[in-house]
Amino acid sequence: MKHSDGGHPPRDRPVAIWYSQAMNESPASQLTASPRLFKNDLLDKLSRVDPRLPLIVYGPIVLALIVWAAWHGTPAWIIAGCFVLGYAIWTLTEYLGHRFLFHTVFPGKIGARFHFLLHGVHHDHPNDPLRLVMPLLMSGPIMAIAVLVTWTIFPQVMQVPALAGFIAGYVAYDTVHYLLHHSRSQNATFLWLKRLHMLHHFTDHSRCFGVAAPWWDYVFRTEWRKPSRS
Q: What is the enclosing helix (H) or strand (E) of 59?
């Protein structure tokens, strides 16, 4: 989906103005629709998620992990350092997952259906407020894998705080993603992130994969680049 004037938001216009115009020029019903994805009522209901759910479910887990590490005598500098490390690992996971899993179209009808359920529906209906954060059926297995990997590769003293940082990174990602689509904040950093994410949605799906961690786009050369004019 592209903006009707070619999809290139002018750099001399605030992103909030450009985004508002892009929304007005696109079918509102498509952008905000929440289509039925499954014939089964329960599965379809589970595909819709209150945006507060990641914070409600995983926030206490993060806090409990930090308290557990401190209670068992882990030095504060190790807790802080491993928390940041876990967060950094999440941001890389976010980038790689978005680029190489969410944007891979698998062959066949089953592959196309899988892609649509995984991420395609979000690009077709980007402002659906109940499909902007991961359902527990998706985030739960990711966290289970994170536990397994953390317990496998890290020394015991690093495991708990690193896992806390990873989970906190996920919560930050889902929260930021929701806000990028629905918040009207005029904070400069927020508007910068929003501009990059809207460019990904409405101009070039092959760039700006880092939703809450845009630095990985610069590392892997997928940052936004203004199209050259011939």
A: helix 53-71
The two structure tokens encoding residue 181: 């689509």
> For residue range 126-183, what is the model confidence (pLDDT) as tens digits?
888 888 999 999 999 999 999 999 999 999 999 999 999 999 999 999 999 999 999 9
Residue 193 in domain: no
SS3 sequence of 10-64: CCCCCHHHHHHHHHHHCCHHHHHCCCCCCCCHHHHHHCCCCCCHHHHHHHHHHHH
DSSP 106-128: -SHHHHHHHHIIIIIHHHHSTT-
Half-sphere exposure of 60 (CA within 13 A, CB side): 4
**Domain enclosing residue 148, as ranges:** 50-186
Q: At what angle do helices 15-25 and 188-202 cross, to 10 degrees?
A: 30
Residue 209 near residue 200, CB atoms below 8 Å: yes
From residue 218, give the alpha-carbon distance in Å to each of 180, 194, 215, 223: 20, 17, 5, 5
Residue 51 has pLDDT above 90, yes or no: yes
* Domain contains 107: yes
Query: So what's the pLDDT on residue 21?
Result: 44
* Domain total of the chain: 1
Question: Using an 8 Å Cβ cutoff, are 213 and 95 in contact?
Answer: yes
Nearest residue to 1 via CA among 126, 111, 128 = 126
- Quote the Cα angle for 15-19-21, to 5°: 120
* Cβ neighbours for 187, distance < 8 A, ≥ 6 positions apart: none
Q: Is the residue at 103 inside a domain?
A: yes
